[in-house]
Amino acid sequence: MQAVEPVDSPDTHRSLETKIFAAVSWLFVIALAIAAARFLRTENFADDVAYIAQSRNVGAWDSSVQSYQGWSGRFAINYLLFSAIVATWAWKSAIVASLLLLGVSMARIGVGKALPWVNGSALALAALVCLTDRRVQFESMWWVTGSFNYLVPVALGLFAASVLLHAQDAGPLQGACGLVAAAVAAYQEQMAVSLVLTALVLLAWQTWHRPGLPDAPGQAAEGTLFAKLFALLVVINTAIQLLAPGNKVRLAKETETWFPSFAHLSVPHKLVLGLERLVAHLVTADTRVFHVLFLVTAIIVWQRRKAWGWAAWSALAVLLSHGLFTLLRQKAFGFRPPYPASTVPSLATGLEISWFADFWVLLVIGVMVVVRLAIATAPRERWLAALPWVLAVGSVVMVGLSPTIYASSWRILYVADVLLVIALLDLLRKSGWLAGRAGMLITVATIAAATLRVASHGSSFFMR
Questions:
Q1: I need a labelling partner for 381 at 20 to 30 A (CA). Which of 84, 190, 341, 409 fits?
Q2: What total number of domains does the chain contain?
């Protein structure tokens, strides 16, 4: 006679835990999607009104062509926006679909196979909701015009990147969808640069990688061909975007309106303005993802202090000093806070505490990147592990080349926030904290924190 397994066996408990874990994840993702669809609405002023009026009067295609010739090179994105914004069901469906795609893509890149896909997606979305600045979220995800310029291309770009990074597992249909998504995402400048650099780094590794080493991608030829096609497609569409006649018109008008002295600044000065925007964002209390990354990195270094010796103590010294310096910068001891949007700093004040803070935070980020590289084990991983950090920094610094570096407010920080969440997920996965019950606890706690944050604001969470 076959033995009957006791109902309270460890396997039964694990199966029940897994089902409950999946149910919690599904409930959060579905609830967030429903809430977004329920409470999102177009603004009764500014860009939403202008886009609706132009689309109704001129049509989506002609409006996109006019915009390309007279204002912006984001042709594909503008066409999607002009097409959808006149129908509530269309733009709501696009935003919700992009939100779900964003969660899946972030999980595929950052979590990998450490968690089932629905749990990883829920963790990614929950971390984005509870660990990033709500002002950034609103301008990039919950505002209709902003979402089509940030959420939609970022979701498409990360989906394309996930296909690129897992080309060996992608079938023809997924590969084709990844290429189309990459082509559309290339019409958003920050995503275009991120995708080009990702493809180039992957191509460089595939070119220099010696056959026979572990984790050869796509078993070489197919992965390399896809990466080349991917890079070529992104470069072509990025060129179409950057060479738009409207970009020159907009540059002149935006400079005159927002930053008259912009044309007289040197390129290094402009890049430093971008760096200042990044640092001012990272050290604020609302950018929780950076502070959590800081703590997780410090814990990892502490756990390895015996193996790493003096290097660990040096890293801990830098991290500890950053924590103290952040307190100082947050007015605790009278040092001034980050620049308000109306202030344009000058390089002439090179000894100011703010400039020291900017480059000190870069040093701290460098330490975090080195720690992540130090715990990498596979050759391919050592090439790619630093990318989220590098692209997060670059995505904001590059905006310093635009006269709207301050006028664009919070939305220019969205790509960096998403990439930092991916960096956090990747660090948790690599440290082993997403395995087993620890992963369940971290995911459920993050979902609970995100739920409480949304519930505490109610419908206003999705409004200005």
A1: 190
A2: 1
